[in-house]
Amino acid sequence: MQKFNFTILLTIFLAIATSVLNSCSSFNNSNTAVSGADPNETAATVNGKTIKLEEVERVIKQQGQGQEAKLSPLELAQGRLQVVEGLIQQEVMFQKAEKEGTVPKDEDVTAELNRQKTSSGMSSEEFDKRLKEAGETDTSLREKIKKTLAIKNLVDKVTGKIEAPKDREIDDFYNGNKEAFVKKKGVKLAAIVIDPANNGEADPTKSEVDAVRVGNEIINQLRQGGDFAAIAREKSEDQSRLQGGDLGYISEEEMKQSFPAQTVAQLMDPKLSVGQIVPSQMQGKFFILKLQERSDKDENLTLESPGVRQQVTDSLVNARKQLLTASYQALAMNEAKIENFLAKKVVENPNELSGARPAGATDAPVANTNANTNANTSANVNVNSAVSTNTNANAKPTTNISTNANSQVNANAVR
After folding, report:
1. What does the DSSP 8-state code read for residue 410?
2. Radius of gyration (Cα) for the chain, nearest Å?
């Protein structure tokens, strides 16, 4: 059963930082606004602090991942308005953080930057190259990290006064949500993931041949008594390496959506004992799976079941944090003096479908005006979504295993 999570997304800059590390290979090399626009043009101001049009366009490019050219002028205008609104909300909260004294020290920013570089799995040269492709510099990334940490610290300070729920509240929550406390038939897994794709100079597996070789070496290490978690942290090419390869608990139904049928059958076979290793291949990557736990039938959990009472407590506290954070932001927005010049352009030019685009810029028309705007709207991250409260006791753990049923897989991961 997955533990309830309190995930602080916090600001648009967290989305930017993620896209810098993961998606910039599909960006244009330009680090300015759309051709023909003045990068120093003001998109909005917050208490006199300018948000430049260049910042808006950079987010559009990073979140669009090269797909922004497929959007119509109207969709791009909508995306820009949503991005600038997110930047405004972020700036309001950062200014509150400055007043509350929650801005991190330079050494804290450096520590977080180094953590991001390490977790990216890239060499220093490859990391810098990706930053440049995304239109970022070490200085601009440090600024984003500083603001992200500042607002996280602010939220922690604001919500730190929330008290733990009373026993009666815990009982009422459980009794009203018993259907969420069912441990489905399934398994708890850990994984070491080997990616045969060439992910940079520091990547030891640049081909399928390399991946098979490294996979067999790892399996031999494990058979000789090697510590799975330690090897995962060192060699896995997946974010789960940060948790020693832990993928959490996955129900049989969820496994069937993303795992090869043969692998699911092996993992659910009572003859496979806990601690055994199952190699598999899916979505172009090699997985060395370790069975950590298996439930052969659905189980109704009670408040006395291990971890359940704490999960309910966390869920109630997180819900209160979400409400308090959203209310704090609403007051901060009300107090701030905000001027949204992109929105003003739309109002002043109601018949100009792309009224929010930069002056002098040209957006290429596309045949399909129903293009998906998710590339743009995903950039609009604000503190209202700061707290994610998971009320599903069987929610699928966060992993890099997508549920693409059309992926071709091979049950023999390591030959």
Report:
1. B
2. 24
Closest CA relative to residue 399, chosen from 296, 255, 262: 255
Domain at 12-161+312-381: CATH code: 1.10.4030.10
- The band of 320, judged by pLDDT with boundaries at 50, 70 and 90, is very high
Strands 285-295 and 277-282: antiparallel
Contact (CB, 8 A) for 376 and 63: yes
Cβ contacts of residue 330 below 8 Å, gap of 6+?
none
More confident residue, 122 or 365: 122
Residue 8: the pLDDT is: 33
Residues listed for the chain: 415
- Three-state SS for 20-61 is HHHCHHHCCCCCCCCCCCCCCCEEEEECCEEEEHHHHHHHHH
**Count of alpha carbons within 13 angstroms of residue 218, beta-carbon side:** 32
312 within 8 A of 173, measured Cβ to Cβ? yes
pLDDT digits (tens, 9 = 90+) for 164-214: 999 999 999 999 999 989 999 999 999 999 988 876 555 677 788 888 888
Cα separation, 415 vs 406, whole angstroms: 23
Whole-angstrom Cα distance, residue 258 to residue 236? 19
Tell me the sheet residues that pair with 193.
287
CATH code of the region 185-297: 3.10.50.40
Which of these, 295, 276, 245, lies nearest to 399 by C-alpha position? 245
Residue 285's SS3 state is strand
Contact 132, 58 (CB under 8 A): no
Domain spans, the chain: 12-161+312-381, 185-297
Residue 230 makes CB contacts below 8 A (sequence gap 6+) with 244
Residue 253 CA: distances (Å) to CA of 191, 261, 270? 19, 11, 17
Structural tokens at position 277: 């290793």
Residue 29 has phi, psi (to 5 degrees) of -80, -10
pTM (global) more than 0.70: no
Alpha-carbon torsion 143, 124, 216, 257, what sign? positive
Q: How far is CA 411 from the centre of its chain?
A: 29
Pull the structure tokens for residue 66.
């090269």
Whether 12-161+312-381 shares its CATH topology with 185-297 is answered no
